[in-house]
Amino acid sequence: MILMIPNQATIIEVGPRDGLQNEANYVPTENKISFIKALKDSGVREMELTSFVSPKWVPQMKDAKEIVNSCLDESRNFVLAPNRKGIERVKETSVSAVALFAGVSNSFNKKNSNKETIQLLEELVALVDELKRDGFFVRACISTAFYCPYEGKMTLKDTLGVCRTFVEAGVDELSVADTIGMATPEESYNLFHTLKSEFPNTLLTAHFHDTRGMALANIYACLTAGISRFDTSAGGLGGCPFAKGATGNVATESVVYMLERMGVETGIDLEKLMKAIDEIEPHLSRSIHTPYRSLHQKEASAELN
User: Fold this and answer.
1) Own/partner pairs for 280-286, CB < 8 Å, 24+ apart?
2) Could you tell me if 27 and 58 are in contact, meaning their C-beta atoms sit under 8 angstroms apart?
3) The predicted structure's pLDDT at residue 229
4) Which of 45, 63, 129, 201 is most deeply buried (CB count within 10 A of its CB)?
């Protein structure tokens, strides 16, 4: 059987923001900057650098301004800004790409922003309009697109409705997430195939958590649906503070390894990516044990012996 899949894929590295936001240890600013620069050196050309959120709620991101001032370059550097106050802070910097987010689930949105989905979307649509008029690239992150930890399975109709609201508002990209890692390959194919048909002029990115070990299978399913953009996190770092059980994002190294073995070019050097992970690990509260990294360490140790 011959499947028509893209011959190139874009990796959007979310480790510095999504990966570190719930880290128990505060990672010093200089170490975050070194991590980001090492990731860029590996070939990453799109990245979530940080988020402009309340330091009270997400203290790990309190150095957002320092991060962007040190790490902006010619590549596409996203920052997350969940509300108007965050957008105002973004506008004090030279950032040109902003990510906003909303869940499909009412319960998730209430936990996350204390707003019903309809109310949250109304506020975000106004912000999208403002950001586009000011020349920003706008990414809409859609959480709980498949399942919600509070409400269970989301309907395709509801997920498409949230996506359509953002597309009609003028966003450049939809990043659609399996927030708690429950999606199956069949569900992933069906949703992204439908999204590609419905919104052919919008960049579509798949964002999978590997809670149940399904992320790589879901990415493969998305490839067969023609999707070529994937959010990943070096070392599998990350989780969601408002979704119980949402463990780390799919590991960048695992995705890059799989894609390159399949003949799908990513432009990322795995050896340099491993060095970036080695650089951040000493500052984390836990060790990194993704399958590819563990194998890489064993092979490196064998060569030394």
Assistant:
1) 280/15, 280/27, 280/31, 280/35, 280/234, 280/235, 280/237, 281/235, 283/25, 283/27, 283/28, 283/31, 284/23, 284/25, 284/27, 284/237, 285/23, 285/24, 285/25
2) no
3) 98
4) 63
Tell me the C-alpha to C-alpha distance, in Å, between residue 221 and each of 136, 153, 177, 205, 208: 31, 19, 14, 13, 12
Q: Cβ neighbours of residue 77 under 8 Å, at least 6 residues apart?
A: 46, 47, 49, 68, 71, 95, 97
Q: Is residue 171 a contact partner of residue 121, using CB atoms and an 8 Å limit? A: no
The residues assigned a catalytic role are 240
Cα-based distances in Å from 83 to 15, 56, 167? 22, 15, 18
Q: What's 249's DSSP letter?
A: B
Distance between CA atoms of residues 23 and 286, nearest Å: 9
Q: Band of the pLDDT at 304, cuts 50, 70, 90?
A: low
DSSP state of 8: B
**When comparing pLDDT for 132 and 286, which is higher?**
132
Distance CA 262, CA 227 (A): 15
Question: CA separation (Å) from 74 to 11, 40, 80, 96, 142?
Answer: 16, 11, 18, 11, 26
Q: Check: CB of residue 211 under 8 Å from CB of residue 180.
A: yes
DSSP 8-state class, residue 26: P
Report which residue type is found at 70: S
What does the alpha-carbon distance between residue 268 and residue 39 come to, in Å, rounded to a whole number? 9
Taking a C-beta distance cutoff of 8 angstroms, is the pair 17, 53 a contact? no
Q: How far is the C-alpha of 286 from the C-alpha of 230, rounded, in Å? A: 25
pLDDT digit string, tens, across residues 185-194:
999 999 999 9
- Give 28's DSSP letter: P
CA angle 187, 190, 192 (to 5 degrees): 105
